[in-house]
Amino acid sequence: MMVIHQVDELRTYLKKERFSAAKEGRELSVGFVPTMGFLHDGHASLLKQAREHNDLVVLSIFVNPIQFGPGEDLDRYPRDEERDLALAKREGVDVVFLPSVQEMYPNPTKTKIVVSELTSGLCGASRPGHFDGVTTVVGKLLHMINPTRTYFGLKDAQQVAVIRQMVDDLNFDVEIIPCPIIRESDGLALSSRNVYLGAEEREQALILSKSLREAEARIRSDRSVSLSEIRAKITENINYKPLAEIDYVDILQFPALTPVDESVPATQIKGEIIIALAVKFGKTRLIDNILLSPEGVVIHV
Ligand code: AMP
After folding, report:
1. d(CA 140, CA 224)
2. Which residues line ligand 1 (CB under 6 A)?
């Protein structure tokens, strides 16, 4: 496994690998998994898929400062390079790209990629500028690596929708592969930020996945329930936990992220919808979601 810190070195390495493959008459497929490190089984699941479907797997680890707002957790974002590299090795990664902030942004960037509309709601509303930072860094990384496929977790479903839009609008030559949410055995969605949670917060945070599961079961079993009732019930469940502070509980079409008519029975909703939550426990902001088709088929859990 190679660990590369410089953009030039990464490009040279990939060029050589592509050249060798071409000499043998093959096209090298490259799977790319962008992360901010402090890796867990959620990241590992993306790497496993990338390993299965590509000749070469590139993992990037970069805590991207421009996607953090003032007062957010950039300075205390958890890091453990040694453990990350061990996980990467275990998952059969070929190249870990680990650039410094100086390497990624030698000068403050004057160019940003901004996706409109899809970024205005959900996390975009409470984290202004966040998605501009995400699309800008992902755009840069895609240019540096030029992968065949890139893997994103549906834990950050809005991010998947936004990146897809960027790739379609700007003709990036890459396939986006959305991957299911990986959870602890008790239901909590894995996140690097879970380490911030105190024991009591961790216990109460289970209400997120529990309410989503309950909502799904109700939509399946009660054909007349409306999405507004579903939303009200989730909100009530979460508010019942004293340490929880709701940022949003929203139900939208996916991946368009446009509003749905919440007043009609859930069964009359067409296409795929997302029930998405963001809830703060102390200083820790957690997100979770479920994607489903109200006709009864769950797309991804
Ligand atoms: P991050 O390091 O948090 O920026 O995440 C890097 C990638 O891993 C993103 O595509 C995330 O959506 C994905 N990811 C994070 N947590 C999970 C999870 N629990 N299940 C699946 N994918 C995840």
Report:
1. 47
2. 35-36, 42-43, 45-46, 152-153, 155-156, 179, 181-182, 189-192
Chain segment 99-128, per-residue pLDDT in tens:
999 999 999 999 999 999 999 999 999 999
Cα angle 146, 147, 152 (rounded to 5 degrees) comes to 125
Q: In a 3-state reduction of DSSP, which class is residue 251? A: strand
Show the tokens assigned to 193.
């930020």
Residue 216: CB atoms within 10 A of its CB come to: 18
The candidate with the shortest Cα–Cα distance to 95, out of 57, 148, 140, is 57
- For the chain, percent helix, then strand, then coil, each to nearest 5? 40, 20, 35
The ligand 1 atom at the shortest distance from the C-alpha of residue 37 is: 2
Distance CA 287, CA 268 (A): 27
Distance (Å, rounded) from C-alpha 301 to C-alpha 299?
Answer: 7
**Residue 63 and residue 61: Cα distance in Å, rounded?**
7
For 121-144, how does the pLDDT look when each residue is reduced to its tens digit (9 = 90+)?
A: 999 999 999 999 999 999 999 999
